[in-house]
Amino acid sequence: MLIYGGAGNGKSSITVAVGGMLPGEVLIPYSVVVHGQIIKVYDPRTHRKISDDILEERRQAAARFSPTGRERRQDPRWAIAKRPMVSAGGELALQDLELRYSATSKFYIAPLQWKANSGVLIIDDFGRQMIQPQELLNRWIVPMEQGTDHLSLHTGDTVELPFDLLLIFSSNIPPGKLGDEAFFRRIRHKVEVPNPTPDEYIEILKRICADKGVTFSERGAQYLLNMYQENPQRMPKACHPRDLVSLLLDITRFYGKEPALDPEWLDLACTSYFVELEKAA
């Protein structure tokens, strides 16, 4: 999936929400041994392991309903976890997609796509990595097409593993600058996230005000919309209501006033928030 559009319209929030929608649990091996080499797969920073208390309750419940009354034991080589959601941004490099060997510990660490198997791998800010987009796309064209990935050990042996995950690219760069037709035909879903319409902007503002405890007013909402018309360089973004209301709360708290969508407070919030970007000479 490719999610693209202007910055500040919720692409990252959408990718995280998609990952949170995936149901079920998976088995994650703590480590695997390939040709005598140990590869560490389980990562507590990435994999959300089911707590021991919940697993114990499940085992006891299964024993009560078992015809033999015996309790089923868990294989200790595997961790039961939620479907993984791995995210990488501008810091992503090609070496992050290969096995990393620790000469001190004498084992390998699995790359991002292995840790994300059976879950979601998010490439955020695609096109702003230290490597060229084409390099990253070329690395994944074959796994995306065949559903398998190949990794190399320092001994020369090759590891073949499933490439079974939802790969999401998120970018505010136009798709035409990211790849060619050969790549995009392998991405079945392309979703554009445009700037919000006036009605959508007001609906977002209403929800933010309700969440922050600020009284919503049509007068204040219309004042904000007129602000965009008076300054064409400012395009309405989905993140603006959240950011401006948060600033308004800071300002009214500083002055010891009740927060409200009044032009006085909105002007101060906008002055603090928006920066006029001058063109370089």
Characterization of this structure:
Helix content is 36%, strand content 19%. With 281 residues, it is of the alpha/beta class. The protein has two domains: 2-192, 3-Layer(aba) Sandwich (Rossmann fold), CATH 3.40.50.300; 198-273, Helicase, Ruva Protein, domain 3 (Orthogonal Bundle). The strands form four sheets. A five-stranded parallel β-sheet has the order 6-9-12-1-13. A four-stranded mixed β-sheet has the order 3-4-8-7, with no helix packed on it. Helix 6 crosses helix 8 (240-255). The longest helix is centred in the C-terminal third of the chain and has 16 residues, at 240-255. The mean pLDDT is 87.
Number of helices: 9
What is the name of the CATH superfamily of the largest domain? P-loop containing nucleotide triphosphate hydrolases
Please trace the helix and strand order, writing H or E for each element.
EHEEEHEEEEHEHEEEHEHHHH
The CATH topology of the largest domain is Rossmann fold
- Spans of at least 5 consecutive residues whose pLDDT stays below 50 are none
Binned, the helix content reads: 25-40%
Strand content: 15-25%
- Looking at how many chains there are and whether they match, the oligomeric state comes to single chain
- End-to-end separation in angstroms reads 39 Å
CATH 2nd-level architecture of the largest domain: 3-Layer(aba) Sandwich
Overall mean pLDDT stands at: 87
Write out the strand line-up for the largest beta sheet, numbering strands in chain order.
6-9-12-1-13
Highest-level CATH class of the largest domain:
Alpha Beta
User: Measured on Cα atoms, how large is the radius of gyration?
Assistant: 25 Å
